[in-house]
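Hey, quick one: can you model this chain's 3D structure?
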Amino acid sequence: MPNHNSHSVTPTAPPALLCREELGALVQDGEIDTVMVGVPDMIGRLMGKDLDALHFTSSLPGGPDMCSYVLATNVDMDPLDGYGLSGWHNGYGDLHVIPDLDTIRPLSYLPGTVLIHGDVTHTDGRPVDVAPRQMLRTQLAALAELGYEIRAGIEAECVLYQGTEARIQRGGYQKLTPVSSHNLDYALSRPPAMSAFFRDLRDALREAGASPEAIKTEGSPGQLEVTWPYGDPMRACDTATVYKHAIRHIAASHRMTPTFMAAPQTGVGSGLHLHISLWKDGAPLFAMQPGGELPELLRDALAGLIDALPHLAPLYAPTPNSYKRYARRSFAPTNFTWGFDNRTCAVRVVGHREGTHLEVRTPGADANPYSALAAVIAALVHGITTHPKLPDPCPGDAYDEDGPLPVPRTLEAARADFVASPIALRAFGPSVVEHYAHAAQTETDAHQRQVTDVELKRGFLRA
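Sure thing. Here's the predicted structure for all 463 residues.
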């Protein structure tokens, strides 16, 4: 759906988080009694443990252990064969979690609790290369070796439905009722219940050090979009996971339920758009004058995205449902094109002068922000180092273009391309490619075994 795109590429000072000393004082005063240490899993959910705050602060910087299958499972948390990291073959051993003490956030919706993001290591201290935060860190290091930094801003869309999770489950996820009955894109007149929800969500995010830049209604009934200020890429992704954690709690208190499916209903699509630019020594490197020539670095970055993103789709479109979002005239791309301020393209050049940046529109709402941004950075590195030819910009309706490479139609096709791609292998290494290819295969297999309501409708009386 269209986005307001008010991102300024000038990094803004992020809301302050708690420092180690402040946490210790709050624990001693009895204001904080629980430290939640969370690790983003492959899907982007925060997984971890609630720790006693006094125990945690007395043992800093130690963290908990967790079963390695947290990073080698499916949406249902089933123990699965086929992963090298964890399985029956190695007894599902533990990984160690190292709390990142630069990410201490109070959670107002969970009184007495702070959330700390963690990084996982093997028992010998080696980073776990398939962990989403580590995947992003590896790509940031590759970009730094070339002398560049990246700044990122995230737009997250979802659809909000009436009713609690339990009620929606009992109804078999059928006859869902969005919290608004029609298209409220950009509307300032909203149902009172929706406005009250927006205020509570904004307050919770602000108190968690994740203040949004804007919250708006989107183009489908019940759809909303949250954007955050441009800034540090790791913090941008951490903020996105805090948001997904917070919105479920806030929505539950309003007897509502959000979904981050890329296509929760036929004809409805939710995205996770990534706004990016490259910097060096505090200066933006994509700056261009209106109507001027593309800077060489911007040209290489665009060419890298168009050339590499087709082969990295499982990292930003991880489920079979992801590919149902890529529909004609849906504001989600159907081919790998780029253009100036063109929302029909996969990559959109936005802004002028120092504000010039790129909006990558391929990730869906179900994407893990860390792996999606890692894929984008890997594509930038590919462009900067190999200088692929940049196709001409698309000046009009990209849905009518038949020359560019199309977006994969299925996760199965995307997986086949991913495992065979030298670009993916060079950027992420064999263990990461094998791990996420296996995750894609398990998702494909799970869907292929299920009889859907569409099959029943079309075949029950007609077959």
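One thing worth noting: The chain has twelve helices and 15 strands.
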